[in-house]
Here is the input.
Amino acid sequence: MPDGSTPNFDALPTQIADQALVSRNRAEEQFLRLHLVPDTKVLLPIQAVGEVLTIPVGQIVPIPDMPACVMGVYNWRGEVLWMIDLGHLCGLTPYYQQKMRITHTAVVLREHDKAATQESPSLGLVVDQVEDVEWCDPAVIQPLPPATLTSALALLLRGYWWKTDAAVFAVLEAEAIIASVAAL
Here is the structure.
């Protein structure tokens, strides 16, 4: 939804609600739960997360003539970390239109095999907040019906997970985020 509105998860099928109650004995994975404005909760596979950062405002250096979702660069351990507004990349409310802050919260995507990705840049994903770790059986992650989300978000998703009747999460794919940023 280019206007920054929340994706419509009400239209999702309910047949997997019982599947969301799987036991931990199955092959479950950990996901980091992130909050994007206005009211979207997404999951990112924990194996894709290198670190969670709190960055003081003013430490991200803007780069002229970059796409709007690129906030700039940040010096992270002597390495240039490209800072991406994940909500804006997903077609939601841009970070700069949200409340004033004194710090940014960012998730550093873990390095992948450089031989396979040919010098992909290191990315930091700026989010509204990092919330918790969720356990999820990958077998219950379902594809999203196209009408429920922004086209930008659809390109970044692995699917959705219906945890309970009140909790539905979009599950992001780290490789899709990296490919989307590389295509900017």
